[in-house]
Amino acid sequence: MSLVEMRRTGEARDVAERQARVDLAAAHRLAVMHGFSEGIFNHLTLAVPGRDDRYYQIPFGLHWAEVTASCLLEVGYDGEVLSGEGEAERSGFCIHAPIHRLLPQHACALHTHMPFASALARLAEPRVLPIGQTEIGFLEAIAYDDDYSGIAYDPAEGERLAGVLGPDRSVLVMANHGVLVCGGTVAEAYDRLYYLERACQVQLYAMWTGRPLKEVPPPVVARTLQQGATGPSYGGKPACEHHFAALKRLLNKSEPDYAA
Is 211 exposed, middle or buried (0-12, 13-18, 19+ CB in 10 A)? Predict the structure, then answer.
């Protein structure tokens, strides 16, 4: 590789890493805006672009409303902080490093205890039901971990969760705990996180009426899933990219320092 090519490659990597940091910082701020955060806990992470041994995580003790692009740590899959100041929260490392390592298609992994999804996860039967269009969109995306085993202080727990999630699912409903939502990009993962909470909220509201739930017939469920998989794109981009860009525009007006 020539010196010019090396320089271009380095510049492209710098641009990708900068954008990744901005997007992950935005996800933290948006999670506060949408009521998905829980104090200084839970973890939103993203694999460092072009690397196969590290991911971004915030320093422990930082409120998500304080997160900026520049504050993110680079954490190795062995738990070592490779860049940045502060400590990586232990359970975040133990859950997320194995997910990124074993399921590299899940570049972004968002773990929250957001209220409606977490409430559903605390039920003896926590399944998202085919009772509406938003809920149907998750039927083939969700894996269920029915075996809560305590706080994740060992990477073996993350490896177990990666096995439950598998390569073909992007959402993990964690019994007695919360959810883990993944995607190839921050935009994809955050869009799923947002609509998962909405789906759980509406299902719980419907259940709270005490009246019988009206499930969509299986043939219509199948057709709706097919429509979702083959639906239109706009400007050559999936809807999740438009959604996340719109949310970032709101942040640019109200909290522009997230990108610092």
Answer: exposed
What is the rounded CA–CA span in Å between residue 236 and residue 24? 23
Per-position pLDDT tens, the chain of length 260: 665 565 666 688 889 999 999 999 999 999 999 999 999 999 999 999 999 999 999 999 999 999 999 999 999 999 999 999 999 999 999 999 999 999 999 999 999 999 999 999 999 999 999 999 999 999 999 999 999 999 999 999 999 999 999 999 999 999 999 999 999 999 999 999 999 999 999 999 999 999 999 999 999 999 999 999 988 889 999 999 999 999 999 999 999 999 99
Are the CB atoms for 38 and 112 separated by under 8 Å? Answer: yes
Query: Cα–Cα distance between 194 and 33 in angstroms, integer?
Result: 11
Specify the amino acid at residue 110: L
According to DSSP, the residues that pair with 174 across neighbouring strands are 145
Q: Residues in the chain, how many?
A: 260
Q: What angle do CA 137, 56, 85 make, to 5 degrees?
A: 150
**What is the pTM (predicted TM-score) of this model?**
0.95
Burial of 118 (0-12, 13-18, 19+ CB in 10 A): buried
The helix (run of H) or strand (run of E) holding residue 156 is: helix 155-165
Structure tokens at 146: 């029915």
CB 49 within 8 A of CB 13: yes
- In the numeric block, which tokens belong to residue 215? 């499930």
Calculate the alpha carbon distances from 108 to 35, 105, 206, 243 in Å. Answer: 20, 9, 31, 16
